[in-house]
Design brief:
Strands 9, 11, 13, 14, 15 and 17 form a 6-stranded mixed beta sheet that branches. The longest helix has 18 residues. The chain has 2 domains: about 290 residues, Aminopeptidase, CATH 3.40.630.10; about 130 residues, Alpha-Beta Plaits (2-Layer Sandwich), CATH 3.30.70. α2 runs antiparallel to α4 and α4 packs across α13. It is an alpha+beta fold. The model has no long low-confidence stretch (mean pLDDT about 95). Helices cover about 35% and strands about 20% of the residues.
């Protein structure tokens, strides 16, 4: 039944492909880089409102700061027992390096079967697919089988700094029975648009993160200026001090050494471990092959590698800067040093608690010469893998593709899902595609994924509506 419905919807969704291009052409023209393009952010929000109203939604913009940056909320309440929520963001990553783009990032361009432009794959294109999928479903059935909500954010790529205020103030808007998080995409086989080379994966959560800028303080801890290295025995070196301070946080075996940190980490759940044991070795192969490594870190393999990556916290130095960086030599003792550091968090490790433990750690080790400034982040978020909505999406995906469905308990990446999971289960669904270049030059989406992705979202909403009839 589901497979036949999907194939029928896929055939009928082809009529939306030009509309997809038309809408996305306008959205891509807005250079919606958060914290840089205030006018573009607000103009894009107005454009989104216009398209949503065109498709019959009631729309409200909720400014999140004085200069706008609204959350665009749209709703179509048909009085159905179940509600589907779509979360998308309309801000994008910066276009740098611009010279690596074959065509303008702010002009939708199509070549060699792919559609290019900043935001095509993350996340403007997915929004258009979601909206068109609901229109297809409504036209096919005469009325939607579920109520629909759209939450469209303008600061996701900049850390969703102001979204918590919106979520706390308008929590009733986030209540739903199922969600699509940044889009569900299906990428068909090259030779057959109704078959799929890779299985669908369902992601049920996102790790949290807290990001620090770590800087050495000035006098009297370090000299007022760089010093001739002949006097290295007499003057404290900011670079070495930064290295020594950071080395107290983690050892060479990746163990985080902050008191109380590991005690907060939630032990992997049996149901999560069971899902990871079913996974193939594609993740390990990708890590080794894509990054041209001899092996994964600490020779981790298989399920152990997945557990460490997905269900355990991590600590990474993301950047270091100190002293002379030019050609040739310059013999100095650096007066300043800086590092960028991020923690990836799993359930029970919140930003607030981790920051508290970090500050206690600095005091314990007398590291008063470093300033740890939090640049924000996200708490972890997770929907149980055995949640009825997740299992429903799994069943639908398996029937459509004819392949086993992999469930990932929590993704290695982060986002503002923690603001939503108290009110709605999240489940990110779709199969793999290569070469999308998300966050990179020449971001794109294969044109042949438009129709199946529209049909896929329509069938998931249809199936959610059907669950109300079985109660």
């Amino acid at each position: 039944m589901i497979k036949e419905l999907f194939l029928d919807y896929q055939k009928k969704s082809s009529k939306y492909e030009q509309e997809f291009r038309k809408i996305l052409t306008e959205l891509v023209t807005f250079p919606t880089v958060a914290d840089r393009e205030t006018k573009a952010i607000n103009d894009c929000a107005d454009s989104l409102e216009g398209f949503l109203k065109q498709y019959g939604y009631s729309v409200t913009q909720y400014p999140t700061r004085e200069d706008g940056y609204p959350v665009v909320f749209a709703e179509k309440n048909v009085g159905a027992p179940k509600t589907m929520l779509f979360y998308h963001h309309y801000d994008v990553q910066p276009e740098d390096p611009l010279d690596k783009w074959v065509s303008s990032p702010w002009k939708l361009t199509e070549r060699d079967g792919r559609i290019y432009g900043r935001g095509v794959a993350d996340d403007k294109g997915e929004f258009v697919i979601s909206m068109l999928a609901m229109d297809l479903l409504e036209k096919e059935l005469g009325t939607l089988p579920v109520n629909i909500k759209f939450v469209l954010e303008g600061e996701e790529e900049a850390g969703s700094e102001h979204l918590p205020v919106f979520a706390k103030k308008h929590s009733e808007l986030l209540k739903a029975d199922g969600s699509v998080w940044e889009g569900n995409l299906l990428f068909p086989s090259k030779d057959n648009p109704t078959t799929y080379d890779t299985p669908v994966g369902l992601i049920c959560g996102l790790k949290g993160t807290i990001y620090y800028e770590v800087t050495t303080k000035g006098p009297p801890y370090f000299p007022r200026t760089d010093v001739h290295s002949g006097e290295a025995a007499a003057t404290p070196n900011a670079a070495w001090s930064l290295i020594w301070g950071l080395s107290t946080l983690k050892d060479e075996n990746e163990n985080i050494l902050i008191d109380g940190f590991n005690e907060l980490v939630q032990d992997p759940l049996e149901e999560d471990l069971a899902e990871l044991k079913k996974a193939n070795d594609s993740f390990e192969r990708r890590i080794v092959d894509d990054y041209q490594l001899g092996h994964a870190l600490l020779n981790r393999t298989g399920t152990d590698l997945l557990i460490e990556t997905l269900l355990k916290p991590s600590l990474s130095i993301c950047g270091l800067d100190s002293g002379y960086q030019g050609p040739g030599s310059k013999t100095i003792v650096p007066a300043k040093a800086m590092a960028k550091v991020d923690f990836r968090l799993v359930p029970n490790l919140t930003m607030e608690k981790v920051d508290e433990l970090v500050q206690q750690h600095l005091k314990k080790h007398n590291i008063d010469y470093l300033d740890f400034k939090s640049l924000g982040g996200y708490d972890p978020a997770k929907t149980p893998v055995n949640h009825p909505y997740v299992q429903m999406v799994k069943a639908v995906s398996a029937e459509i593709t004819g392949k086993p469905v992999e469930i990932i308990p929590i993704a290695a990446g982060s986002g503002p899902a923690y603001l939503f999971t108290p009110y709605v289960p999240i489940c990110m669904a779709g199969n793999d595609a290569v070469g999308l270049n998300g966050h990179a030059p020449n971001e794109n989406m294969p044109a042949d994924c438009i129709s199946p992705s529209i049909a896929y979202n329509a069938v998931i909403a249809y199936a959610l509506g059907k669950t109300a009839e079985t109660k």
